[in-house]
Design goal:
Number of helices: 14
Organism: Streptomyces reniochalinae
Keywords: Magnesium, Metal-binding
Cofactor: Mg(2+)
Mean pLDDT: 90
CATH class of one domain: Alpha Beta
GO molecular function, one term: hydro-lyase activity
CATH superfamily of one domain: Enolase-like C-terminal domain
Oligomer: single chain
Strand content: 15-25%
Pfam families: MR_MLE_C, MR_MLE_N
């Protein structure tokens, strides 16, 4: 999720409370933002759908890649989970041009991901059919075998694939979720943050803010300092009341015995319903043990670090999860996610979206066994800084607009520029 940088960047004056929340407490304020974009008109769909300007035969004319490293707004300039501490989140933004339109895709990771896009992937898609993103996906996937397909390679491929699908939807004048084989028109969300270095008051404020927005489920990070988790879970439950679902995420910090101990306590004392990566997602046998021996009403989840289809197949074949997770900006973009969704459906297991709400809200409308989307504090604030057109939850769900083509977002270059660590501003 995160990237580190050595350059000095302008601080982001953003609230730790959920973006979009109205309540102000403990001196926390929300930074105002300008709305300058690269393209003057976000481009509402105003006429009949169909190819725009003779989209048939349109070729990809060019690829641009940018990276922006945005400091956290956590205590002492950092955020922590069960296994990691970070000071910034780096977004890699890809633009693909063709037919007078520009598609936008992105991922989160190290700035080296931008270099992978520029050196390995941009030459492969330039000149390709702009209306055939899946064909270009297979071309990229085959070509990067020796460069390293999982990890950075998968994230780079994901960003380009999302941009290609966004371009196709813009060329056809369709919102992306309507171009995809959508089976839903909205994606339920859960508020996610609750970092392990938050004081109890800050934790309570953030969680209560999501509840005030009508979000019926929230998640906190645990297990970095297990001795403090009981007090943090109590503070969380008190803040959200008895009717909001409480989730916990250990980020793989615990041993099997520790995880089983905490699973039983979490379910019994705080009515926790979802325990994510109690042990490493590589430990499929350990996850299966927790499913078999843990409380029946506590679901075990993993999958956010799946990069290739085999990663998800391993979790499903081991019976390791009650609910599978996938990140559209890691698992191969839109094309890769559709494959993961089919695999989950074949195993009759629900699929939950990991973060990246601007892209996930469209992509997961096409997931048959959709559960929900992680409305992650870091990604929400970064996307609201970088993009115009981001969605806000209504009634606990994100509803993609029907009147904007593609993902419906535009890069806010003026606001993004102070955080640039790769590439050059267009124009």
């Amino acid at each position: 999720m995160t990237g580190r940088r050595s350059e000095t960047v302008a601080p982001v004056r953003a609230a730790v409370r959920p973006p979009g929340g109205e309540r102000r407490r403990r001196g926390v304020t929300t930074r105002g933002a300008s709305r300058q974009t690269h393209e003057a008109d976000p481009g509402r769909v105003t006429g009949p759908t169909g190819p725009v300007g003779g989209a048939d035969g349109v070729r990809v004319e060019g690829v641009r890649v940018h990276a922006f490293s945005v400091p956290t707004d956590g205590p002492d300039g950092a955020e922590e989970d069960g296994t990691l501490r970070w000071e910034a989140t780096t977004a890699i933004v890809v633009e693909v041009q063709g037919g007078g339109r520009t598609g936008v895709g992105y991922t989160y990771g190290d700035v080296s991901t931008a270099g992978f896009v520029a050196s390995q992937l941009a030459p492969l898609v330039t000149g390709g059919d702009a209306l055939a993103p899946a064909a270009l996906w297979h071309r990229m996937r085959a070509a990067v075998r020796n460069a390293g397909r999982p990890g950075v390679g998968a994230m780079a491929l994901s960003a380009v694939d999302i941009a290609l699908w966004d371009l196709k939807a813009r060329l056809l004048g369709l919102p992306l979720h309507r171009l995809l084989p959508a089976v839903h028109d909205q994606v339920p969300v859960y508020g996610s943050g609750g970092f392990t270095n938050y004081a109890h008051g800050l934790l309570a404020d953030q969680l209560a803010g999501w509840v005030e927005q009508g979000i019926p489920r929230v998640k906190i990070k645990t297990s970095r300092r297990p001795g403090q988790d009981a007090a943090r879970l109590s503070a969380a439950r008190e803040a959200i009341g008895p009717d909001t679902e409480l989730f916990a995420d250990a980020n793989g910090a615990l041993s099997r015995k520790e995880a089983l101990y905490w699973a039983r306590r979490m379910a019994g004392e705080w009515d926790v319903r979802w325990l994510e990566e109690p042990v490493s997602s590589d430990d499929t046998a350990g996850l299966r043990l927790l499913r078999d021996q843990g409380p029946g009403r506590l679901e075990i989840a993993a999958g956010e670090y799946g990069f290739v289809l085999g990663d998800f197949a391993a979790l499903l074949q081991a019976g390791a999860v009650d609910c599978l997770q996938a990140d559209v900006t890691r698992c191969g973009g839109i094309t890769g996610l559709l494959q993961v969704a089919g695999l989950a459906a074949a195993h009759r297991v629900d699929l939950s979206a990991h973060c990246a709400p601007a892209a996930s809200a469209h992509a997961f409308c096409a997931v048959e066994r959709l559960r929900h989307l992680e409305y992650f504090h870091d990604h929400v604030r970064v996307e609201e800084l970088l993009f115009d057109g981001v969605l806000r939850p209504v009634g606990g769900a994100l509803r993609p607009a029907h009147d904007r083509p593609g993902l419906g977002i535009r890069v806010r270059w003026a606001d993004a520029e102070p955080y640039r660590v790769h590439g050059h501003r267009p124009g």
